[in-house]
């Protein structure tokens, strides 16, 4: 997560498995985090190895702004080789939120 705002962002983060009817059964990951403002480093705030690589609906809720956003993560890599997967959430100074994900193939869009 990357925070270009002047203040820290206080979040609830949830990962849900798709195609599961009961929300409580679909929940794969939940955490509350505070993302500090960027300090000029190129390294975003990260949390690693939280879920296996499969499709998820990722929901973030900014508790201080009482707003939420979501992103549909779909793995791009089809081979069995090692690769770094990830979703980057960027909090823009104007209050907007942008999601992007890493890809493996050259023809896959970088969202």
TrEMBL record:
Protein name: Uncharacterized protein
């Amino acid at each position: 997560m990357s925070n270009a705002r002047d203040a820290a962002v206080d979040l609830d983060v949830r990962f849900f498995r798709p195609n599961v009817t009961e929300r409580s059964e679909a929940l794969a990951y939940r955490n509350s985090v505070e993302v500090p403002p960027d300090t000029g480093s190129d390294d975003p705030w990260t949390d690693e190895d939280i879920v296996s690589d499969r499709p998820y609906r990722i929901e973030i809720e900014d508790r201080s702004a009482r707003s939420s956003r979501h992103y549909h993560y779909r793995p791009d890599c089809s081979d069995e080789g090692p690769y770094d997967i990830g979703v980057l959430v960027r909090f823009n100074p104007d209050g907007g939120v942008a999601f992007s994900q890493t890809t493996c193939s050259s023809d896959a869009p970088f969202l």
